């Protein structure tokens, strides 16, 4: 089976982090967002994966190559030049790789989740649907565009688009997880050229054509759209404390203790408090205080204090400075 990971977006809400690193390539303790999604695809049975790239494509390509090699996945990279193609246009560009007359997975590369796509794949095969979207109960206060599902488990509308409202029809609203099970039918409603949205053009087009777009609802597990600094901080700290049940990635498993990666330097007189993660090439100077709940990513230098916080790659926390409940 083949899967595709969408990794071309700009990540504007995460600037300035995403001015240097594409959002799917952002690091997490011992891994990256992109590697977590590649691992989910592999757990679902994928042996090949397509990753598209547009913004800072070299950072996406590097992470994808390293992770695919660790996971024994055959990797296909699709570089988008010029205007970004969107989720639908990216699929069309990769159609020669994906259109094999069989279902394939599509995952958003900027989502962190421990949901198992195998369950969605099994449900899709059981229903015989043209496409399946993996949904979750709508979080309280969330502003996600609703996906409305009828009593038969079919999707009627996405963000208000799709089937016309039926008298006395009861629809339930859910949030979309960014995980799809698709068949080549999706290409029938996507524009052949240019940018498009797989949800609003692809799935909605199938709904309007009377085709079956099925809902697979996951009640449990953890899921986060890592699209803001607050959610990126939360994702790092949640992984630090083992709150996600993820497939093993990078040969690394987080625990509640202190993890110091190879190549890190901890000077005498530095203080580390669990749980903390010290990445490769990190330097913690004498007198520095790290933790609890601190994540220090590759190549950063800490001279001051880091508590419930993340220091991104190459960051510096100078002497006398304290970073608390924030990204440095």
Automatic annotation (TrEMBL):
InterPro entries: Mannose-1P_guanyltransferase, NTP_transferase_dom, Nucleotide-diphossugar_trans, Trimer_LpxA-like_sf. Keywords: Transferase. SUPFAM superfamilies: Nucleotide-diphospho-sugar transferases, Trimeric LpxA-like enzymes. It comes from the Bacteria. Residues 3-241 form the Nucleotidyl transferase domain. GO terms for molecular function: transferase activity. PANTHER family: SUGAR-1-PHOSPHATE GUANYL TRANSFERASE. This is Nucleotidyl transferase involved in threonylcarbamoyladenosine formation. It comes from Vulgatibacter incomptus.
């Amino acid at each position: 089976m083949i899967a595709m990971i969408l990794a071309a977006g700009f990540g504007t809400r995460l600037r300035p982090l995403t001015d240097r690193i594409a959002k799917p390539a952002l690091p997490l303790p011992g891994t990256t967002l992109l590697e977590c999604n590649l691992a989910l695809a592999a757990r679902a049975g994928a042996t090949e994966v397509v990753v598209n790239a547009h913004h800072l494509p070299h950072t996406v390509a590097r992470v994808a190559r390293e992770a695919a090699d660790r996971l024994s996945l055959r990797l296909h990279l699709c570089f988008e030049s010029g205007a970004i193609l969107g989720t639908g246009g990216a699929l069309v560009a990769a159609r020669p790789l994906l259109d094999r007359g069989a279902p394939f997975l599509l995952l958003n590369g900027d989502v962190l989740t421990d949901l198992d796509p195998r369950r969605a794949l099994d449900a899709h095969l059981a229903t015989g649907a043209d496409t399946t979207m993996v949904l979750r109960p709508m979080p309280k206060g969330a502003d996600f565009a609703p996906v409305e599902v009828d009593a038969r488990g079919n999707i009627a509308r996405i963000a208000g688009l799709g089937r016309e409202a039926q008298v006395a029809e009861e629809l339930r609203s859910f949030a979309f997880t960014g995980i799809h099970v698709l068949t080549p039918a999706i290409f029938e409603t996507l524009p052949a050229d240019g940018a498009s949205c797989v949800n609003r053009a692809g799935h909605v087009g199938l709904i309007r054509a009377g085709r079956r777009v099925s809902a697979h609802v996951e009640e449990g597990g953890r899921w986060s759209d890592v699209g803001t600094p607050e959610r990126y901080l939360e994702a790092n700290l949640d992984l630090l404390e083992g709150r996600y049940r993820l497939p093993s990635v990078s040969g690394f498993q987080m625990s509640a203790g202190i993890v110091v990666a190879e190549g890190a330097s901890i000077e005498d007189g530095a203080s580390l408090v669990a749980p903390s993660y010290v990445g490769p090439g990190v330097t913690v100077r004498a007198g520095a205080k790290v933790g609890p709940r601190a994540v220090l990513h590759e190549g950063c230098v800490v001279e001051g204090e880091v508590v419930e916080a993340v220091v991104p790659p190459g960051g510096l926390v100078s002497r006398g400075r304290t970073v608390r409940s924030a990204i440095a």
